[in-house]
Amino acid sequence: MSTQFYNSLTRKKEIFKPIEPGKVKLYTCGPTVYDTAHIGNFRAFMFEDLLKRYLLLKGFEVNHIMNITDVDDKTIKRSFDENIPISELTKKYTGRFFEDLKVLKILPADNYPKATNHVPAMVRMIENLVKNKNAYIADDGSVYFAIDSYHDYGQLINLDFSQQKRSNRILADEYTKEKPQDFVLWKSWKEKEGDIFWDSPWGKGRPGWHIECSAMSTEYLGNHFDIHCGGVDNLFPHHENEIAQSVCATEEPFVNIWMHCEYLLVEKGKMSKSQGNYFRISDLIEKGFSGEILRYILLNTHYRSKLNFTMDKKHEAEQVIQRITDLYDRLLSINNTVENNASLPKEYSQFERALDNDLDTPVALAIFFEWVRKTNIKLDSDSLQEKEAESGVYFLDKVNSIFDLIKENIEVPKEVLDLVNVRQKARQENDWVLSDKLRYKINDLGWIVEDTLTGQKCKPLKS
Ligand code: AMP
Ligand code: ZN
User: Fold this and answer.
1) The pLDDT of residue 167 is above 80
2) Residue 97: nearest ligand to its CA?
């Protein structure tokens, strides 16, 4: 079966075929760094991590860009409310975001462009839109996109706006889908915004939120790229507006596949600070959750179904993580090297088929758990062959390259970690001779280093 993903634009599953064979260009909307990201935001980032890990497992090279929204209505408001410079505010929350990504073992993107570093590219794009008569300049120097200049407006949310009169212009970044309005591309400077402005052909001002993603995605990935992701709340107006701006400014197709994950709800409701059901990753770690437990909870529901996060999910997840980690250790104690020609258990192809079907993680995990159950029975009755242990380790490594659920409870000595870090640098510089030398040095210290899809992993050599 070939890999299929559900495309929000065509509202059907499509066989995935990148524009350039073997290479995937992926853009995912990143955090708005005016506050600490919550578990709902991380549902979106975890789904994107799943997608990227699966593409890597399938052998694609992935160029992944995630923007950091460090100037918009929310960041400006918060910096005034807290009376601190916007750069200080966004630096603090960007730092927290990266810490949380690490806790959740989310693979880093290739680049995290910040909006404030890309304003000239946004201005260039808006200039094109004005030139192409898709945008107009208001009396105060703000620039708006004229939605009736783009006849396909509404394609992503499947609403026909062509009969509706545009009711108004809107300066804010959000509005309701029932009332499509000309949206702002460039917001003219207001005195209360102090020193937050950039110069432009239309005077002092700042970009609207939507143009930030259009400009940064095309700057890093080209005008036409493969996949663009976000949560369902991004469909409208953010992604609808991104399509309109990008297609009209570049006069080329924009994105082939749009993928969106459903909402995360807490105790069946919307997260709200006043109701005490608003969770940041650090809150959950304090309550005894770990990165692996959170990964399991977030990935065990299909990304296109709503996920109801409840505290009692922790217990089941803890047991699952322990069971998988124990099985891995038991298999490693029988066989801890996987030869190049190692085979995989028959369940692997079923597991892969489930993920090929629009990343069906609940089915993939169910297949995997059934194999775990059978393998434990064989181990308990001492009937597992060494070759089966080898293919078991291989299967677990593959599953872990997607789900990353196995607890890393072995303490790797600092001396070994230092060599691993030097080796990583050598590999980045294509110095394979040094990389091999370091591998042998690590072996001499009693450790094995493996190059996995998700980076270098260390295991003790079998004694
Ligand atoms: P923001 O920082 O608000 O721009 O959001 C970052 C990402 O989190 C976006 O892709 C949103 O669509 C996503 N997101 C926000 N809230 C939720 C939620 N409750 N469930 C799933 N995704 C969400
Ligand atoms: Zn975006």
Assistant:
1) no
2) 1
H or E segment to which residue 45 belongs:
helix 39-57
Instruction: Using pLDDT thresholds of 50, 70 and 90, give the confidence band for residue 163.
Output: low
Give CA–CA dist 29/44, Å, rounded: 9
31 Cβ closer than 6 Å to some ligand 1 atom: yes
Query: Measured in angstroms, how far is the CA atom of residue 238 from the centroid of ligand 2?
Result: 7
CB 20 within 8 Å of CB 61: no
Atom number of ligand 1 nearest to Cα 232: 12
Q: HEC states along 336-355?
A: CCCCCCCCCCCHHHHHHHHH
Contact 67 CB / ligand 1 (< 6 Å): no
Give the CA angle between residues 208, 210, 214 to the nearest 5°: 120
Q: Which CATH superfamily is domain 4-261 in?
A: HUPs (3.40.50.620)
Interval 52-102: pLDDT, tens: 999 999 999 999 999 999 999 999 999 999 999 999 999 999 999 999 999
Atom of ligand 1 nearest to the CA of 270: 19
In angstroms, the CA 153 to CA 243 distance is: 8
Tell me the CA–centroid distance for residue 45 and ligand 2, in Å: 13
The closest alpha carbon to 217, from 194, 234, 197, belongs to 234
Q: Which ligand is nearest to the CA of 298?
A: 1
- Atom 7 of ligand 1 has which residue's CA nearest to it? 41
- The helix-helix angle for 240-250 and 209-221 (nearest 10°) equals 50
Distance, CA of 72 to CA of 383 (rounded, Å)? 62
Answer whether 225's CB lies under 8 Å from 65's CB. no
CA 375 to chain centroid? 33
**CA distance between the termini of the chain:** 42
Q: Give the pLDDT confidence of 29-41 residue by residue, as tens digits.
A: 999 999 999 999 9
Please tell me the distance between residue 153's alpha carbon and the centre of ligand 1 in angstroms: 23
Distance CA 397, CA 267 (A): 33
CA-wise closest residue to 336 among 300, 288, 389, 280: 389
Strand partners, 230: 260
What DSSP character marks residue 429? T
Residue 178 has pLDDT above 70, yes or no: no
